[in-house]
Write a structure and sequence with these properties.
two-stranded antiparallel ribbon, Pnp Oxidase, Chain A, 210 residues, 33% helix, Methane Monooxygenase Hydroxylase, Chain G, domain 1
């Protein structure tokens, strides 16, 4: 079988793109784990997403769950508040779910699109595992209205907030200042709440480091 991950940056040529979304998996106690993650998908012009690649970090709950169960659901969503809080494991409450039928798992009820998948292989030798999966079912719940500049800024800020230990404080504050300005100019109430949450989290983390 031809490997889904190949070539520079784990992507074969220019027909693979990374689609940001949220993965749900089942924990050993039957609870639901929610994790923002980029899925590598085929962008060669085919309408259906038949296969995807995931690259969770070693030691994450998502990787442990997928290694144990071999199945999960990937979601496309414009809910940046959920994405931001899930990225930092700071969910106040679990969102509403719908039962998945093609796999043992759960679908985010407010997602735009979802893809139930089964794992074909896991290569876990590096800092990030490379998981190849086949899509066994998919569905659409509502229209994806798109990510405006504020939503994009929140996504970037959420990713940055998970990498605080890797970057110098000055660079972090500069980036957050720029992203917060974009949210203030172009965002609505949900984007502002998400950005405020991320800024508070980062400032507290930075204070602990100083």
């Amino acid at each position: 079988m031809k490997r889904f991950f190949s070539g520079r940056n784990g992507r074969k040529g220019l027909d693979k793109v990374i689609l940001e979304g949220i993965v749900t998996t089942l924990c050993a106690d039957s609870g639901v784990n929610i994790a923002p993650m980029g899925a590598v998908i085929d962008d060669s012009g085919q309408r259906a997403v038949r296969r995807m690649g995931l690259r969770p970090y070693q030691g994450t709950t998502t990787l442990a769950n997928l290694a144990r169960t071999g199945q999960g659901v990937f979601h496309v969503t414009d809910d940046v508040e959920l994405l931001a809080k899930a990225a930092l494991d700071r969910l106040d409450a679990l969102p509403e779910f719908l039962p998945a039928k093609a796999v043992e798992g759960w679908i985010l009820a407010d997602a735009c699109r979802w893809y139930a998948f089964r794992v074909e292989s896991i290569e876990a030798s590096g800092p990030r595992a490379e998981i190849e999966a086949v899509v066994v079912a998919e569905g659409r719940i509502r229209d994806f209205l798109g990510l405006n500049r504020a939503k994009h800024a929140v996504v970037e800020a959420a990713i940055l907030a998970t990498r605080l230990a890797l970057l110098p404080p000055g660079e972090i504050r500069e980036a957050f200042g720029r992203l917060a300005d974009l949210v203030e100019k172009t965002g609505g109430a949900a984007e502002r709440r998400a950005m405020e949450f991320l800024c508070d989290y980062v400032e507290r983390a930075m204070e602990k480091r100083s």
